[in-house]
Specification:
2 strands, DNA-binding, mainly alpha, Arc Repressor Mutant, subunit A
DNA sequence: AACTTTCCCAACCGCCTGGTA
DNA sequence: CTACCAGGCGGTTGGGAAAGT
């Protein structure tokens, strides 16, 4: 048996708010406040609206100091950083952006920022035009963004939020792949939605000593490993460990595609579906949400503190 | 100009959580 | 301890606007 609805749906108005409704709600709340009861409020002021609808309208549109309009670069970076660190905690993200609502940020992320970050803006469609120059230029734009410190940090923070498998995937997909072969006794088994063997092994070898399974986790940045060889935590670490040198990136096709595969593949792993589609045919993610629960708000605060300090002053003496 | 496709965002839906009786 | 309720939250939808053909 389902939960009882919060209001009588047959007798409430739905859809866009009229200016008159807005005025009624606004003036009442400005004069008397919400009264601590959103459900009762519409009856009190003669609005045929659900209490939840009133609350949403007030919070997202009518309340003072709401900022509408385009987002700044700074706001973009904050959203990217926090999203990649804590996931879709829109209310927490909104709390870091005065005047922005969680709904605004969620819409902005889903419709634009995600595409911008993944390099999937509408000009994607021009990729098929002769010469592929537009594609090349667009990818270059995206990668210029990635090379910017704040967005680099965003990318690196995949490892702060997502389970260690993702860190290993980023640091050393080939090695992880080989370990899985041993575990599964199946040399063809590949859990990733792309071919990890395409990653250049000579670049991976230098990272292999940083074995994720022996890493412990930084107390200030939960789920963020650091290593026995004293490297410690580095928010830019993942880019240091990227399968190719980001600083020496020459935009050749192989590396561009590798970048696409890693970013796109990671997104698929995380969300269990193609991020370009909102269709219902999403596949199941192989990440067990119970085994890898989202970090608590406390963990988020810890992460944030760590970010503000940029780098912890002390590193642990040994693994736990 | 007409039609189709894609984008954008306000609003809705339903689950989860915390307070309280 | 349990049940109920309201508030809060994140995912999703619907429709108008803009862009593309």
């Amino acid at each position: 048996m389902g939960r009882a609805p919060c209001c009588d749906k047959a007798n409430v108005k739905r859809g866009p708010w009229s200016p008159e409704e807005d005025a009624k709600l606004k003036s009442h709340i400005e004069e008397h406040g919400t009264g601590g009861n959103w459900i009762a409020l519409p009856h009190k002021i003669g609005l045929k609206r659900c209490g939840k609808s009133c609350r949403l309208r007030w919070l997202n549109y009518l309340r003072p100091n709401i900022k509408h309009g385009s987002f700044s670069e700074e706001e973009d970076h904050i959203i990217c950083t926090l999203y990649l660190n804590i996931g879709s905690r829109w209310s927490i993200i909104a709390s870091q952006l005065p005047g922005r609502t969680d709904n605004d940020i969620k819409n902005y992320w889903n419709t634009r920022l995600k595409k911008k970050l993944m390099g999937m803006q509408r000009k994607d469609q021009q990729f098929s035009k002769p010469g592929g120059l537009v594609k090349q230029e667009m990818k270059r734009d995206v990668l210029e963004d990635v090379k910017a410190p704040s967005l680099c940090m965003s990318m690196n923070l995949y490892q702060s939020y997502w389970p260690s498998e993702f860190s290993l995937l980023l640091t050393n997909p080939n090695q992880h792949h080989q370990e899985l072969h041993v575990k599964t006794q199946d040399p063809t088994f590949n859990p990733y939605p792309f071919d990890t063997t395409s990653i250049q092994p000579e670049l991976l070898d230098q990272n292999s000593k940083k074995h994720i399974s022996t890493a412990s986790y930084h107390p200030q940045l939960p789920n963020t490993p650091y290593f026995a060889n004293g490297d410690g935590i580095n928010l830019f670490q993942e880019f240091n460990n990227f399968p190719f040198e980001i600083n020496e990136f020459d935009y050749n096709t192989t590396q561009l595609d590798q970048f696409d595969e890693l970013v796109g593949g990671l997104d698929n792993l995380i969300h269990g579906s193609n991020c370009t589609s909102s269709s219902a045919e999403s596949t199941t993610s192989w990440v067990d949400p119970l085994a890898h629960p989202r970090p608590s708000p406390m963990a988020y605060e810890d992460c944030r503190r760590g970010l503000l300090q940029n780098r912890p002053s002390e590193q642990p003496s040994q693994f736990q």
